[in-house]
Amino acid sequence: MSFTGLDVFDRTIQLTNIWLKELMEKLGTDDRHRAYLALRSVLHALRDRLTVEEAADLAAQLPMLIRGIYYEGYHPADKPLKERHREEFLAHIREQFRKDPEVDAEAIVRAVFALLDEKITRGEIEDVRHALPRHIRELWPER
After folding, report:
1. Please, what is the end-to-end C-alpha distance for the chain in angstroms?
2. Are 112 and 43 in contact (CB under 8 A)?
3. pLDDT tens per residue across span 60-103
C-alpha cells in the first residue's frame, strides 16, 4: 500500500518508522513522540559538534526523512561548537525535555548512539566518534 504515491517517500516513511520503533525499544517506552524528540535532540547535539564535512558525511547515511530532521535549523557557519564536556552535551538534551525534569539525558544519548551504531556503517561511526571530544565519545557503545 502506498501512502504518498511516490516510492521514495513511502520508503523513507517506512525506514523512519523502523528507526523510531527500534529507538522506542532501546528507551523502554511506547511513546513515539518521546522517541522522536530523543532522536531529534541527540542528532542536533551531535551534528553541532561535527565539522561541516563530517556532519554531511553522517547525513548521507540517514534515511531521507531523518536527514531532514537532522538538518532542521542547522547553521554551519559557527560549527563545530567548541563545547568539550559531557555535561554541556547532555544539557542540550535536557533542554529539549525541559517539561520532563526527571529525564535521563545520558540514557537517551546512549540509546540514540546505539541506534546509530547499528544503522550507520562502521567506518562512518569511527569517523564520527573520532571527531568527538573524549568525554562525549565515552557515551558511545563499544562494538
Report:
1. 37
2. yes
3. 999 999 999 999 999 999 899 988 899 999 999 999 999 987 89
Asked if residue 1 is part of any domain, the answer here is no
Q: What angle (nearest 5°) sits at the alpha carbon of residue 132, between those of residues 128 and 134? A: 130
- Domain assignment present for residue 21? The answer is yes
Q: Is residue 52 part of a domain?
A: yes
CATH no. for residue 68?
1.10.490.110
Between CA 20 and CA 69 the distance in angstroms is 13
Distance CA 81, CA 89 (A): 10
pLDDT at 2: 67
Domain tally for the chain? 1
Place of cell 547532555: 90
pLDDT digits 0-9 by tens, 31-55: 999 999 999 999 999 999 999 999 9
Whether residue 142 lies inside any domain: the answer is no
